[in-house]
Amino acid sequence: MWDGEYTIGLQHLKSFNYLPQECQQMQLISDAYGGLRLRITRIYSDSLEETVKSLLQLLEKVNRPYLTVVEEKLLSVLELEYERR
What we know:
With about 80 residues, the chain is mainly alpha-helical. It contains 3 helices and no strands. It has one domain (about 15-80).
């Protein structure tokens, strides 16, 4: 969820019985999403321009564990510009 953290009880989780290799792949995907979320969280604030906020929100909603070359460049530029402030 955007800008939120939720705790879920184990009784509400369903096992998908992944093989060990599939578990590793899921961990890589999860780490990639976590890293992206962390990068976005570092620069997101209510004081950003509306366009920048919208772009960050869209990047976090990307439904794949990586950014395209253009998406990565956009996020990098925003990091350079706003992490300094």
